[in-house]
Specification:
4 helices; 60 residues; 434 Repressor (Amino-terminal Domain); single chain
């Protein structure tokens, strides 16, 4: 898995949907630091949050 590529995808989808890291973090009940780590490719969201991201971003 390419963490950086996934992180860039999350970042782009977040921006395309006009979310800030803070607002997305609130929707997912995580810290904005978690969003930052995902977008930088440091780590991935857990399966539950990945499913929520897919639903928010209308991604299948």
């Amino acid at each position: 898995m390419d963490l950086e590529r996934i992180g860039k995808f999350i970042s782009k989808k977040r921006q395309d949907n006009s979310y800030t890291q803070e607002s997305l973090a609130e929707k997912l009940n995580v810290s904005n630091r978690s969003i930052s780590k995902w977008e930088r490719g440091v780590c991935l969201p857990d399966a539950n949050n990945m499913a929520k991201l897919c639903k928010l971003f209308d991604t299948v």
